[in-house]
Amino acid sequence: MNKKNHTSLIHISKRREVSLGRRWGIRALAIILAFVLSAVVTMIITGLNPIEVYATMLKGAFGTPRKMWTLGQEIAILLCVSLALTPAFRMRFWNLGGEGQVLIGGLACAASMILLGDKIPNALLILIMTVTSIAAGALWAVIPAIFKAKWGTNETLFTLMMNYVATQLVAYYIIVWEVPRGSGKIGIINQNTQAGWFPQIGNFKYLLNILIVLVLTFVVYVYMKRSKQGYEISVVGESTNTARYVGIKVERVIIRTLLLSGAICGLTGLLLVGSTNHTITTTISGGRGFTAVMVAWLANFNPIAMIFSSFLLVFFSQGAGEISTAFGLNQSYADIMMGIVLFFIIGSEFFINYKLHLRKNTGKEGA
Amino acid sequence: MFDLVSFIPRAVAQGIPLLFGSTGETITEKSGNLNLGIPGVMYVGAICGVIGAFLYEQNATNFVPLLGVLIPTAAALVGSLLMGLLYCFLTVTLRANQNVTGLALTTFGVGFGNFFGGSLMKLTGSEVPSIALTSTSNCFRTALPFADKLGWVGTVFFSYGFLAYVAIILAVIASFVLKRTRTGLSLRAVGENPATADAAGINITRYKYMATCLGCMTAGLGGLYYVMDYANGVWSNDAFGDRGWLAIALVIFTIWRPAVGIFASMLFGGLYILYLYIPSGMNLSVKEIYKMFPYIVTIIVLILSSMRNKKENQPPASLGLPYFREDR
Amino acid sequence: MEQRTAAVSMRNITKSFGTILANNKVNLDIFRGEILALLGENGSGKTTLMNMLSGIYYPDSGEIYIDGKAADISSPREAFQHGIGMIHQHFKLVDVMTATENIVLGLKEEGRFDLKNASKRIREICDTYGFEIDPDKKIYDMSVSEKQTVEIVKVLYRGADILILDEPTAVLTPQETDKLFAILRNMRGDNKAIVIITHKMHEVEALSDRVAVLRKGEYIGELFTKDTNSQEMTNMMVGHAVSLNIDRPEPVNPKVRLQVKGLTVRSEDGILKLDDVSFEARSGEILGIAGISGSGQKELLEAIAGLQKLESGSINYVDDDGKATDITSEDPVHIRNLGVTLSFVPEDRLGMGLIGNMDLPNNMMLRTYRTGGHSPFTNLAGPRKTAAKVVSDLDVATPGLSTPVRRLSGGNVQKVLVGREIASAPTILLTAYAVRGLDINASYVIYHLLNEQKARGVSVIYVGEDLDVLVELCDRIVVLCGGRVSGIVDGRTADKRQIGLLMTRIGGEEHE
Asked: Which of C349, C374, B249, A67 is nearest to C366 (CA)?
């Protein structure tokens, strides 16, 4: 009896085992391809030769000490949001609300600075700013978490919507507190007294942020890898069935984890408002809530690896920014470049996890 | 007094891009794909229309209105189709995470739109000071000739450019196809339970590609409508704003029903501009609170539908999950 | 046998999965106007054989003839073209759709898409055979029996005249079963060929015209139902006693360890899973639980382990000094806090007992990570030691401790799981299908481990499916039938045919 051949030319199967070398080899290849493609696109648009493209990008990222500090600061803030999302993602809770949680944290910080500035000692003010920002971020994240835990409400869509509620809330308070009246913005808060401004370490404006985030990276790494709570998060993420079997209260873990996730987002808002900008706008988060999703995912939710993935994205963004400045192009050029890198890395995951078997289609084969 | 006759057309004009976007996303989600790239797709649709129109206006010696409409429309459709294909290739063929892919698509799409919007003049070396596609826009904005003869009826129902009617027709068609055709039944099965659909002989990959690509093209028209009709052919960066996300919110709000989307989009459009009509005196800030309504209402709908746990009102059961037959 | 053309003839069908031979040169004839019962124990290859008719699997060798002509069935679609339709145990239905929508799903009919017309045709089919379903009702509103009806109608709607039902009564109440049987008889009257896969003797007797028996993948023989009796069929199904030479030491100083009284459990959809179950488990003995799959074994173990909501009943733990502790409805953590070391090897090893993506030490830690006082950190040193000990003691074949357990073979996965559960020095050890899918050697390792625990004075509860093993390994055997205890027998004197009867009938009497 002959078996009709219904199989296609290519058969796909899941890989059982992927060596570390292969995993990173494929990713590196994807990044190199992305670099090549983006250089080609840049060449077509600007007429630069490839060497110049890369040179300009390097200059944009590392050209001057100032640029390097900016690079560091951008990495730190993006990394901070990514760290925030990590525990939630490890639990397979898709927190797309980083944007809103950062904003609300920033809003709480700005509110403390505006309402309490000059009225209480600076140290106390900074303490209050810290507490309120973190609490506000945590609150913003725990609302969807409670509904997810109790009724299974879709967290992806819920957290997404919370972003816009937060944006409008910020927009509201910007008008309430606007300086000067009618300008539609708050301006630098406590410009004269600098009340609530984070202290600067030496002459380095961004150093404090970078240090805080570095410490936090380590803390989150240890929390996820070594703590009992982090272990519970991994178990719940892998299998709620197993979690229940060993007596883990899944609902409680969801809520606790999102409190943490939101709290770190709130902290990011604090850093942005209290330490970096000393003002708040509706766009202060700058899409990092979303970019961080990709940073965390690219790094396989490993906090240490996230240093590299956020570096990669920020480097691309700053480098492409330099190209656009040098050629009078629009700053959005960076987003296009970043998109290309992301598509390549996203696509490359397939070749890490699956194996392609090419078959000869002989039409018939013996059964 | 509340001027309803002037309010409704403005609410509709605000609602149409959302309607395009939500119809497109509904079709997509019915196949089990959660495309968070819709905001990016709408930007790409808009900018491709702009590029098409710009090139045509710059190069045409005499402007033919029909071509003035067809070229930008075709450009918008092709642009958004390519975005849809990219999303499908990554999520369906390569089984990548839908959330991450969608967000990357939005980053890329919004960047693409703003980049070409800001650099088009420089790139083409043209002399014009800004992109204002007046002739093209006039074609898109042509209302039915008898609209102004009908008084308020004309204003409320017939004063819109043709794309507004296309949006409504598409929503009706989508609703009909989903509810009343064999294709719609198969598509819903794919989004609900791909393993069952597969066992019934339905080609999962083909349905996901078709639904997502058609959805993207529909959403792309929303971008086109926005720039050509609503914004009078003037492109300004980031002007499209968060409408893409609002369109995704609308999908939830309508609990995955395109026909409901027709009214819901107008409602959202109305809520979006309501602040202009509510007398708030000197207190401008409250208006920002009003703008929150669409999102809060959406959240409430999401919560209530999950609490009531009525099966029809839930997202498609396999939404966001890749399908791999051998995983069964 | 009389001369008539078989609707389906299967000849020398062989099918293997990896090293396991699921069907070995099986011959089977199916005739129109007849109900054939395909009888066999769990794992005897009944479903595999029928899956080859319905296009799910493709035979390794052998031939299939439909109405005398050689047929090649490599997909469900082709099976339908031959008029073969199978109703699986797990329904393939879309919940949010109506019965009609599910029935026409994927059909490429000519002409306009007309659900009303389809509903009409469905009603006609229902009237012909006596089904009672509302074509416009949504699947999620339906009872299990209604869902099954939809599956049957789906097959008929597609024009099948050879119907295969895989354990259709497993999910039905006795009344629903009677109704189904009446319908099947109507279909037989309509000259359809019907195969019903079952291991319930009284169903064979009540329904079938002919019975074919499979055992361990082999075709044993066939009989006309009217010419046989349940004893003969049971003998064919379970075979002659095979000596497995499993050790069974005498229990040392057995004392009551666990008292289960009047346990009643309902599933989420309200189906009675355990009905007034009472028994005692003793220290130093292995208590077997026998029963057809789905008779409440899973619920029973989960109830004891604190993972099931009880409707009523009590579970008491008795320690060596005779002090009883009530552990009814406690969660697993509380049970441990009460000082009861209860270990549980669940049926779903990678989905419940272990985490496939984690390595061995992390899987060991599932049970122990809470220890270590109030320290917020986990300590992997202990689990790593445990993992190393389990690997060396139980001869686990693994590339290393840091290998994710999903990459291990089935037997090694089970050794890891059992090893972990034993490592906590339990006083009660619950095991569900501990040797399922394991090869002979691995199985004996597990039996040996259980005997070791027994010697340590542990009360072992062993849910099993292979009667040969149960009667050689266990000291006492509780037999479950439809969620009720149909008998408790002594493992040393029990005959597996007697147990086989108890599994299908309460108290050995016909259960209606």
From this structure: C349
